[in-house]
Amino acid sequence: xxxxxxxxxxxxxxxxxxxxxxxxxxxxxxxxxxxxxxxxxxxxxxxxxxxxxxxxxxxxxxxxxxxxxxxxxxxxxxxxxxxxxxxxx
Length: 89
Prior knowledge:
mainly beta; Immunoglobulin-like; five-stranded mixed sheet; 1 helix
């Protein structure tokens, strides 16, 4: 199995179009273990920026463009990494 960067992983999914600085709610069937959720905002194939995350919601960037959110979380059964792309209008 080959490795794909979070940027590449995100672009394997359909883009979700959102407005600048809109709130994106994260929900899980089962909540991750406390303090295990980490989030990165990929702004290009090689660049990351701070992901604004508060009270279960992400704030989309203020500048138009394509971004990828990369998450890592742990549960009692194990850990998982996943990514999804957004297009900010």
